[in-house]
Amino acid sequence: MLSSLISAALLLLGATQSLAAPQASATLSPSPTLCPIKDYGPFKLFVQPTGPTSTSDAPYPARLILNDKSLPATWTMIANTNSSCTGCGRIPSYWVLKGKQLHAVDSSATTAVPTVNKDVATSNGDLEFVTSNSATAYPIYCGVKSNPSYPPLLSVRGSTALFSMCAFTSVYPPATQFTIIYNSGGIHPTGYKCFPVNLVMQSIGIIPTK
Known about the structure:
The longest helix has 26 residues, at 2-27. By secondary structure, this protein is mainly beta. It has one helix spanning 2-27, and strands at 40-49, 60-61, 63-66, 74-80, 94-98, 101-105, 115-117, 125-126, 128-131, 141-144, 153-156, 163-168, 177-182, 192-203.
C-alpha cells in the first residue's frame, strides 16, 4: 500500500514538472523592440495630419516657440498652417536624435548650447525643450520605420500614433498656430479641437543615417 502511494506521488510530481516547463521557457523569450532607431539625423521634422482637417498646405515644418524670457530658455513644439507666417516660432535648421534624446539645432546660433527635449506628460503633454548645457536627460524619443519606402516616424515611449495638433479653432480670424500634444485624451473646452498627426523624420543626408 505504501509503495503504491509513493509511486502515485512520483507520477504526480513528474506531471507537474512537465506542465511547468513551457511557462519557464516563455518567460525567457525576448521582449519586442520598442525603439528600433535610437540615433538618427540630421533630419527635418514635419507635422503630417493623418485625418481630415480644416487646414491645407500640409505637411507643416515643426517649429519651436519660446515660452517666456526666463533662463534657461524653454520652448514648445508647434505647427503653423500659414507657411508664410513670420515671427510664428522658430524652425530649427535641423533635428538630431541622439541616444533617444531629441535635439533641435540652430546653425545660426552664436553659441554651442544644446536645445534638447524635456520630459513629456503621459496625457495631454506638450512637447517641450530646453536650451541648456546642464539639462536633465530624458531619453524617451525614438524613430520607427514602418515602411521601407518612407521616412521614419518620431515616437514617444514607443508610440507614433498619439500625437495631435490642437488649438481653439472657433475663434476669428481662424487659428493658424497649433500646439503639438502627446495623447490628447479626455474632455476639452468648447471650441478646442485636436487633429491626429504623425511627426515625419525626413533625412537631409548630411551624414549617414542609422
